[in-house]
Write a structure and sequence with these properties.
Blueprint: H1 10-107
């Protein structure tokens, strides 16, 4: 028959079970926190990827808009140059015509 000291007492069993329960809860809590953290990180990564794609789209749209505006500005400059050349040409034509009429009138 076992010695009375070898038989665990009810208080010792209770303490052991309590310690086990506490360690088990801490381990499970730690695992859950880790899983939650990993899920949050995956969510942040997906959100970051979406934001990066959105930023690239916006940059592309802005680049296209800048090119369109630059083309419009160049078109306006070209139209102004053409108009200026037409005005100068018309003025020179009028001046030459006026001089020709004056010379014709004086010569007889």
């Amino acid at each position: 028959m076992p010695e009375p000291d070898d038989i665990p007492r009810l208080a010792e069993i209770s303490r052991t079970l309590s310690d086990f329960r506490s360690e088990f809860r801490e381990a499970i809590s730690s695992m859950v926190r880790r899983d939650v953290y990993m899920a949050e990180m995956r969510t942040f990564d997906v959100r970051l990827e979406n934001l990066t794609l959105e930023l690239k789209r916006i940059e592309n749209d802005a680049s296209l808009e800048i090119k369109r505006v630059d083309a419009d500005i160049e078109k306006d400059r070209s139209e102004r140059r053409t108009l200026r050349a037409q005005v100068i040409g018309a003025g020179l034509t009028a001046a030459v015509t006026f001089i020709f009429l004056i010379v014709k009138a004086w010569s007889g």
